[in-house]
């Protein structure tokens, strides 16, 4: 998951970035609204954390501009003021949730997780596709009720595909959302992950959950169990 | 919103003062004018009477012919001397006051011989007087002393005339005078009242405009005022504007203060969590520190909010449209609690008004609705009504509710029914403070939905 963090307090931003990178997010960050807006318009993020008190363009302004320009990724507001006028203004402007400073990192993680999942159209933290069930809170996969071990990268690839079911996801899109910008992108590595995932998800090749669309990318091809 | 009672009650209004002053002046002026006119008229009537009496005396003098017994007046030109009791009487007396002759009209007249004052004016002297006789009423008289050519004796010629016609004439004049002056006074009073009303109208308008601002129907004094009032209204407008700006600035400053105090707290908290994340065991010291950080955060939030509340001048508050504000909050919270798919039913008429700061209402409703959504299972109901200037709010949910014995405690400062999630305990405390700062009330009851029902009265 690719994340944008806009926070003007350097120390706090650094800690947020680190904490969320530790949670396997790919994080871009900026300390002012102008840069933040540029990043938000330029790249396709899965979610953004925006502090309301930003220099140059304030948080509300950034959120409004992003929404006006058609960016639909979920936005979590950070606010120190804790008054409802600010919260409601932020949510009205197009944000999806808020966290009041000071915050617990766990809370940010939980809210982000919920936002990303909801943005993909899932009402519950567990993504159920027939026999395949991915618990996004505990980051656990089970197939036919049996727990399946995944590496961090395997989980990230699967979660991204499952959050975009039925959609063709290009290798470029996958790498952009799963790796740092300067990461050495080797499409062979991705193919290796996909192969391993297929083995773990569908050992007898009866379900074929991840389809390869030649020259375009991959598609998660199982219908969700619960109407989203 | 109470204004000092003494300023309106204890002193007379400007209009009353001016009316009273003009009224007294009018009475004095008209009274004095009436007196002067009355006196002048009376004097002129009296002068005319004297002149007439004088002429009658000359007529008697001209007609008198002495004989051995006294006088004989064969040819009196004035007919009234010959008619009995005509009201005009002539006498001729000697120096000792003895009657020598009386006109036929005076045959019935009984003069007190002794006290008869008509006699003995000096020769060539005309005297005037008045007397009262039984049966005749008031009489005015003139008497003239003279010699007679061939006799050495002095005589006095006297004429008496009834005062009744003159008195009637004066009386008629007086009643006319009173009538006209009364009408004049009435006319002037009405004119004066109208003038005062017209003249003081701008002041009445100003008072009305000010109370319109108080009640929040208007932002500033907008009417057209006379030149004399323009500096006052301009300054008032400026004052109102400054005061509103000052309040906004103050809020902004406190907001910035919150921001600058809370960001270091956030950094400390995040640092602490890094340490905790890294260490295998959660040291009790770290837990203590986290708890203290949370407390500091709550104190900062709570005290800053109170500082905002304490600084508010609700006199100048604009009335807040309640329904749109509630809709915004419900919209925001529906987003936040999307996972719970809360059904929030909002019942608020479009014309509901809250007489206070919109941010206060936002804070009040935000916290109460947030709690309802947090503790409710899936349904929340909000209903708002107006009671005069007061706003009544009922916020209900289908959560577990609050036990009877916990309700008082819940409403007490900083308390919360469950203390599991720290860092969010000040919401209700802020609500309670806000309600009391508006002199309102808050109650916790049972909702038909099954959960708690918070009833608030503010404004």
Question: How would you explain this protein's 3D organization?
Answer:
The complex is a heterodimer of chains A (228) and B (459). Chain A has helices at 10-22, 33-42, 59-68, 84-93, 105-119, 152-163, 171-178, 187-201, and strands at 2-6, 26-30, 47-51, 75-79, 97-100, 126-129, 132-135, 140-143, 146-148, 168-169, 210-213, 217-220. Chain A has 228 residues and is of the alpha/beta class. In chain A, strand 8 and strand 9 form a beta hairpin. In chain A, helix 6 crosses helix 8. The longest helix of chain A has 15 residues, at 105-119. Chain B folds into 3 domains: 13-214, no CATH class; 254-310; 317-458, 2-Layer Sandwich (Heat Shock Protein 90), CATH 3.30.565. The longest helix of chain B has 51 residues, at 164-214. Chain B starts with a helix and ends with a strand. Residues 1-7 and 415-424 of chain B have low confidence and may be disordered. The chains are: A alpha/beta (228), B alpha+beta (459). Chains A and B meet through helix 1, helix 4, strand 5 and helix 5 of A and helix 4, helix 5, helix 6 and helix 7 of B.
Series of H and E elements of chain B:
HHEEEEEEEHHHEHEEHEEHHEE
Ranges of chain B where pLDDT stays below 50 over 5 or more residues in a row are 1-7, 415-424
Helix content class of chain B = 40-55%
Supply the CATH architecture of the largest domain in chain A: 3-Layer(aba) Sandwich
Radius of gyration of chain A: 18 Å
* Average pLDDT rating of chain A: 85
Summing up helix and strand content along with how strands pair, one would put the structural category of chain A as alpha/beta
In whole angstroms, the N-to-C terminal distance of chain A is 21 Å
Give the overall shape of chain B: rod-shaped
Number of strand segments of chain A: 12
Q: What spatial order of strands do you see in the largest sheet of chain A?
A: 2-1-3-4-5
Give the largest interface. Answer: A-B, 34 and 39 residues
CATH superfamily of the largest domain in chain A: Response regulator
Strand percent estimate of chain A: 15-25%
């Amino acid at each position: 998951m690719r994340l944008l963090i806009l926070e003007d307090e350097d120390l706090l931003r650094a800690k947020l970035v680190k904490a969320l990178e530790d949670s396997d997010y790919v994080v871009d960050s900026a300390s002012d609204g102008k840069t933040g807006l540029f990043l938000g318009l330029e790249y396709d993020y899965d979610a953004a954390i925006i502090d309301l008190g930003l220099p140059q363009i304030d948080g509300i302004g950034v959120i409004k501009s992003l929404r006006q320009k058609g960016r639909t990724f979920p936005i979590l507001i950070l606010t120190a003021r804790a008054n409802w006028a600010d919260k409601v203004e932020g949510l009205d402007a197009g944000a999806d949730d808020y966290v009041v400073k000071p915050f617990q990192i766990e809370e940010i993680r939980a809210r982000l997780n919920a936002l990303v999942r909801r943005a993909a159209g899932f009402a519950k933290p567990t993504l159920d596709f027939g026999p395949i069930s991915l618990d996004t809170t505990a980051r656990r996969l089970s197939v036919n009720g049996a727990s399946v071990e995944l590496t961090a990268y395997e989980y990230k690839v699967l979660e991204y595909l499952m959050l975009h079911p039925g959609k063709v996801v290009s290798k470029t899109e996958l790498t952009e959302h799963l790796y740092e910008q300067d990461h050495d992108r080797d499409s062979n590595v991705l193919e290796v992950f996909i192969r391993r995932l297929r083995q773990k998800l569908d050992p007898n090749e009866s379900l074929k959950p991840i389809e390869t669309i030649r020259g375009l990318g991959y598609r998660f091809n199982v219908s969700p169990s619960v109407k989203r | 919103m109470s204004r000092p009672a003494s300023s309106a009650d204890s002193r007379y209004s400007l209009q009353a003062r001016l009316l009273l002053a003009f009224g007294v002046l009018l009475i004095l002026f008209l009274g004095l004018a009436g007196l002067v006119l009355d006196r002048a008229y009376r004097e002129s009537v009296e002068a005319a009477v004297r002149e007439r009496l004088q002429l009658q005396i000359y007529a008697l003098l001209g007609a008198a012919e002495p004989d051995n017994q006294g006088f004989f007046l064969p040819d009196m030109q004035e007919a009234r001397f010959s008619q009995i009791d005509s009201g005009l009487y002539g006498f001729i007396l000697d120096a000792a006051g003895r009657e020598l002759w009386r006109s036929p009209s005076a045959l019935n007249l009984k003069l007190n011989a002794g006290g008869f004052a008509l006699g003995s004016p000096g020769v060539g002297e005309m005297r005037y007087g008045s007397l009262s006789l039984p049966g005749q009423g008031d009489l005015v008289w003139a008497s003239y002393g003279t010699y007679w050519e061939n006799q050495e004796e002095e005589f006095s010629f006297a004429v008496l005339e009834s005062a009744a016609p003159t008195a009637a004439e004066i009386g008629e004049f007086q009643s006319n005078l009173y009538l006209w002056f009364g009408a004049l006074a009435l006319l002037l009073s009405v004119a004066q009242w109208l003038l005062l009303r017209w003249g003081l109208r701008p002041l009445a308008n100003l008072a009305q405009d000010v109370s319109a601002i108080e009640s929040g129907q208007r932002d500033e004094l907008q009417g057209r005022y006379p030149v004399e009032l323009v500096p006052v209204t301009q300054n008032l407008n400026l004052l109102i504007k400054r005061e509103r700006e000052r309040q906004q600035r103050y809020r902004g400053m406190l907001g910035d203060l919150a921001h600058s105090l809370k960001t270091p707290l956030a950094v400390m908290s995040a640092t602490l969590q890094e340490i905790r994340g890294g260490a295998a065991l959660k040291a009790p010291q770290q837990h203590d520190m986290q708890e203290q950080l949370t407390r500091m955060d709550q104190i900062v939030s709570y005290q800053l909010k109170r500082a905002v509340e304490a600084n508010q001048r609700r006199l100048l508050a604009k009335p807040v449209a309640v329904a749109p504000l509630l809709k915004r909050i419900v919209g925001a919270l529906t987003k936040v609690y999307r996972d719970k798919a809360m059904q929030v039913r909002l019942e608020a008429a479009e014309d509901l008004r809250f007489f206070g700061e919109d941010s206060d209402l936002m804070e009040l409703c935000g916290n109460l609705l947030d709690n309802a959504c947090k503790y409710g299972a899936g349904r929340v109901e909000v209903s708002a009504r107006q009671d005069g200037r007061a706003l009544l709010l009922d916020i209900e949910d289908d959560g577990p509710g609050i036990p009877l014995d916990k309700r008082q405690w819940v409403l007490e400062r900083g308390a919360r029914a469950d203390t599991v999630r720290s860092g969010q305990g000040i919401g209700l405390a802020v609500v309670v403070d806000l309600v009391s700062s508006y002199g309102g009330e808050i109650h916790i009851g049972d909702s038909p939905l099954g959960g708690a029902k918070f009833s608030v009265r503010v404004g």
